[in-house]
Amino acid sequence: MTEEIIIAGFGGQGVLSMGKMLAYSAIMQHLEACWMPAYGPEMRGGTCNVMVSISHDKISSPVLRCFDTAIILNQPSMDKFESAVKPGGVLMYDPNGITRTPTRKDIRIFAVSATEEATRMNEPRIFNMIVLGAYLSVKPFLGLDHVVEGLRKSLPPRNHKLIPLNEKALRVGMGLITQP
């Protein structure tokens, strides 16, 4: 089993955090994992992405050109990465801010209304955990317990009080999958 993922959006959307948590979670399940972030000099608002590879076997390179899964959180990332999903792969996106929805017929496409749900819950900071929960429902090779433990490892101790809220967001995301 090998899963090669790109998560892409604007800085401040939790893109890099999602990638780091996936990698930590995979390691907790005794899988090989690597993540490689890419971002501009802007703190928030610039585009960023992270490549994550998870495998039972050794990973030869963190640099990827094609992906089993693309998690897209803004239009510039949709424009850049839709074509990089392997045939038969998965493209997940939050429709908020997307002006051109994906059109490919050779991949599975899932819309996740994470922005809308985070707003409804009055917790915009959990947007990325809702998206990650949706991913876990489509690709359930990582256990939720390991993801929560990955969250514990990746969050600074001062933020551990937010773990129950983030776990709730993961569960909410697992129930939000729709296929357009």
Describe the protein.
The structure is a single chain. With 180 residues, the chain is α/β, with parallel strands linked by helices. The chain has one domain (2-174): Pyruvate-ferredoxin oxidoreductase, PFOR, domain III (Pyruvate-ferredoxin Oxidoreductase, domain 3, 3-Layer(aba) Sandwich), CATH 3.40.920.10. It contains six helices and six strands, in the order βαβββαββαααα. It has helices at 15-28, 75-81, 114-120, 127-138, 144-154, 163-174; strands spanning 2-10, 32-39, 47-55, 67-72, 85-93, 108-111. A six-stranded mixed sheet has the order 2-3-1-4-5-6, with helices on both faces. A hairpin with a 7-residue loop joins strand 2 (32-39) and strand 3 (47-55). Helix 1 (15-28) packs across helix 5 (144-154), helix 3 (114-120) packs across helix 4 (127-138) and helix 5 runs antiparallel to helix 6. The chain is globular and about 40 Å long. The model has no long low-confidence stretch (mean pLDDT 91).
List the helices and strands and how they pair.
Elements lengths: L1 E9 L4 H14 L3 E8 L7 E9 L11 E6 L2 H7 L3 E9 L14 E4 L2 H7 L6 H12 L5 H11 L8 H12 L6
Parallel strand pairs: 1-4, 4-5, 5-6
Antiparallel strand pairs: 1-3, 2-3
Helix pairs in contact: 1-5, 3-4, 4-6, 5-6
CATH domain class: Alpha Beta
Strand content: 25-35%
Q: Give the number of helices.
A: 6
Structural class: alpha/beta
The CATH homology group name:
Pyruvate-ferredoxin oxidoreductase, PFOR, domain III
CATH-derived architecture: 3-Layer(aba) Sandwich
CATH topology: the name is Pyruvate-ferredoxin Oxidoreductase, domain 3
Please outline the major beta sheet.
6 strands, mixed
Can you tell me the overall shape? globular
Radius of gyration: 15 Å
Q: How are the strands of the biggest sheet laid out side by side? A: 2-3-1-4-5-6
Spans where pLDDT lies below 50 across 5 or more residues: none
User: How many strand units?
Assistant: 6
End-to-end gap: 28 Å
Mean pLDDT: 91
Total number of distinct structural domains: 1
Element-level helix/strand string = EHEEEHEEHHHH
